[in-house]
Each structure stands twice: as C-alpha cells, then as structure tokens.
Amino acid sequence: MTRKKTSVRAIVLAAGCAAGQAQAQQVAPTPAAYDSVAVQAARPPLVLGAYAQGSFILNHTAAISHLAASHPTGFELNAQRQTTGRAAWHGWYKYPKVGLALVYYDYHNPILDRSYAASLYISKPFLRTRRQELSFRLGAGLAWFTNPFDLQTNRKNTIVSSPLNATLQLRVEYDYALSEHLGLLVGVAVNHYSNGATTKPNFGVNLPSLVLGLNYHQQRPAPTVPYLAPVPTDVGHNFLLASTSLGYKQFGLSDDKKYFVNSITVAAGRRVNRKSNLLVGLEGFYDRSLLAAQKDTTRSGGKLVDVKKAGVFMGHELLFGRLAFVSHLGVYFYNPYKSNAFYYERLGLRYQFTDVVFGAIDLKIHRGAADVIEFKVGAKLAKR
C-alpha cells in the first residue's frame, strides 16, 4: 500500500511540473504580477557533476606541431544551480543552469605537463523532458599551467608562455536520467587556454574533447514560476556608452618588458528585444608595444610611423540581467603602422554595476590570434 501511494504521489508531482512548464510559456500581465510570483520561486535545486575528458591538441600552426602529438586527458568536478525564475532572464532562456567547474588536465608531455582551471558557466537547454536534456554550455575563467615557456629551461613550450591564463569553454551536452536523481552525461567540447598575448610566445591551447560522466540532480524536473516576465520597459530605447580600457602585452621574445595598451570607445546602442542590444561605435587605440617593436627594427635616426589606430565597429550584446556577453567586429580607418590585419574582433563580458557605471573584460583579436586583454570601465547614458 505504501509503495502504491508513493507511485501516485510521483505521478501527481510530475503532472504538476509539466503543467508548470506549460504555464511558463504565458507572459505575466504586468511587471508587478511577475514580481509577486518570482519572489516565491522555489530555491534553485543543485546539480553536481563529475566528468572524464579525452582530448587532442589542435595543430593550428606549424610552430606547435611538435606539441600536438600527445592526447591530453582531463577530469572535471562541477556544481550547478538549475534556475527557476527568480530573475526575469531565467525564463527568457528556458531556465538555464549556472555553475562553477574545476578542470584538471594532464597533457602526457613533460614540456606542457599539467593545468588546473576554474570557470563560471551557463548551460542553456535546447531540449528538456522529464528524462533527458540537450544543452549548450558557455564558460570562462582562469587556468594555471605548471610548466610554461622559459627561454632557458623550457623554450620548446611555444603554446603556453605564462603560468596564469584565461580559459574559454564551449560544449554541447546530453544528459539522460538513469534514475530519479542520477543522470548520464555525454558531450562534445572545445577548451581554449590563452594569456591574451600579455607574454610571448602565445599560440594558445585548443583542446577538442569528448566528455563522459555522471550528474546528481537534487530535483528533476525543477519547478518554475507560472509566468514569463513581460517585455522590459527599455526595449526599443537608445543609449550611449563611453569607456576607456587598459591592457598590457609583450611584443617579442627578445624583450620581456610589458607595454601598456589603451583605448577610448564611444558607442550608440539600442535594446532590440528582451535578450539583445545592437551597437555601433568609434574607438581609438594606443599600443606602446608597437612603438617598441618599431624602434627595435628602425635604423638610428629614422622616422617613426604613428602607431595610434582608430576604428569603427558594429556589435551585439547578449543580455543576462546585468551581465552581457559582448561580440564586436571592427575595421581600422586610421592605421599608419601596418602591424596587423585591417579588421579586428572582440569578445568579452560587460557587467552593469549601477544604472550608469559598468565594467568589462574583453579579448581583442586579429585574425583569430589574441592581441590584448582589455580591462574596461565606462558609463551608460540612457537616451529615450
């Protein structure tokens, strides 16, 4: 009799969760109506994971061919929270997971040795049922390499030139329920490590990987609020961004000095929907490492070319509350010293600390190669 009651209770709970998911497609009539149910949202349930990773080093340039023969293996521990609707953006992204991952890699090569990384990530579902989930995961963080390049003791390590690096994770994951709480996870991933050209050489590590592991789900499926948040009031409104950045880099192996890189940016933007801003802007750059490189190759007394650059860019911001994932594509219209391609890309994260002040960390890129990591501070000026 007890077993029968338990089965009935499980069916009722499952039906309630399914009904909640269906209702979640409805939009709250007013922001106040959404806020009243969001504050009562269930505490986000915990998901714990342990995964093994098998990888190979992507041979993207001849300079790392001697290192691309090994097959690194890794292990990951992570903790995730399944969002339930406490913030408006949860429902707009179909209730993703947010988590922290700790990743260890053994490169099975004494030149590279090992790495340890910690990253924050978001995992957005494309398919979710009671027993399975297909999702895309994007994460970023920091990594520590135990045996980086050293001109005297480890000059063959042309991939990693400093102990501290940034890491970027892209992954497609499939989780299948083996039981009420246990899930089998399989995935395909790319792990990227780079120091953003702060130290040379910096070809970076790209690890295409297969992932296999287990997830413990505290509650599956998780309850969600019965409404989506209504469209934000600033959709269709314009704004201005003004910012300045500071970075540093090394121009070559012959000079281990670090040189400052500055930029000034002014951009006009528009919030086009719940998830996106579109931008267009102007910016100027002053890279002192280019001046050092020019002095190193120019004859004594020779005239130096202006190393300052100016560009125009178009961009997109993917919004997660106050956090935005930034992507830009720019073209130089003033570039007297031809040290790079005529265009540049930028990927980064921007966080709006107040309604006006924001901070950002961006990676500026030329033809897929990191140019500099920019640490940025600025102001957002609203314009109706």
Description:
12% of the residues lie in helices and 51% in strands. The protein is mainly beta. The strands form two sheets. It has an eight-stranded antiparallel barrel. Strand 14 (343-352) and strand 15 (357-366) form a beta hairpin. The longest helix has 22 residues, at 2-23. The termini are far apart. The model is unreliable at 1-24 (pLDDT under 50).
Quick structural overview:
The protein has 384 residues and is mainly beta. It has helices spanning 2-23, 31-38, 88-92, 288-297; strands spanning 46-55, 73-82, 97-106, 114-128, 132-145, 164-177, 182-194, 205-217, 238-249, 259-271, 276-287, 309-320, 323-334, 343-352, 357-366, 369-383.
The biggest beta sheet is recorded as:
8 strands, antiparallel, barrel
Low-pLDDT parts are 1-24
* Helix/sheet category: mainly beta
Tell me how many strands there are: 16
Radius of gyration: 24 Å
Strand percentage, roughly?
over 45%
Q: What general outline do the C-alpha atoms trace? A: flat
**What's the SSE pattern?**
HHEEHEEEEEEEEEHEEEEE
Number of helices: 4
Task: Compute the separation of the termini in Å.
Answer: 65 Å
Average pLDDT over all residues: 88
Helix content: 10-25%
